[in-house]
Amino acid sequence: MVNLKNALGADELTDKKAGLPRGLLAEFLGTLLLNFFGCGAVVTDNVVAIGLAFGLIVASAIQGIGHVSGGHVNPAVTCGLIIIGKV
């Protein structure tokens, strides 16, 4: 049986080498970029430009922070993966 403390990732909170603050900062920046630039693209009336802006910012955020935190760019996905023990 899996230890609940390890399954929830509680050991990462005390491990200095895991880089939890770095991962949290990367996820925060990725989500910030997505919301800022994606929602800022709604200023234009062109639906294609809005979709292209969202697509490019998601691709850029994942490319930029993916190696640090997994590149979820969605706090709900990250919390769900922590609960099931995949992070």
From TrEMBL:
Principal location listed in the UniProt entry: membrane
Record keywords, A-Z: Membrane, Transmembrane, Transmembrane helix, Transport
Superkingdom assignment: Eukaryota
A Pfam family reported for this protein in Swiss-Prot or TrEMBL: MIP
Residue ranges crossing the lipid bilayer per the database entry: 32-59
Subcellular localization(s) per the UniProt record: Membrane
Annotated GO MF terms: channel activity
One cellular component (GO) term of this entry: plasma membrane
Membrane topology of this protein: Multi-pass membrane protein
Family: Belongs to the MIP/aquaporin (TC 1.A.8) family.
Protein's name in the database: Aquaporin-like protein
The organism of origin for this protein: Lasius niger
Lineage: Eukaryota, Metazoa, Ecdysozoa, Arthropoda, Hexapoda
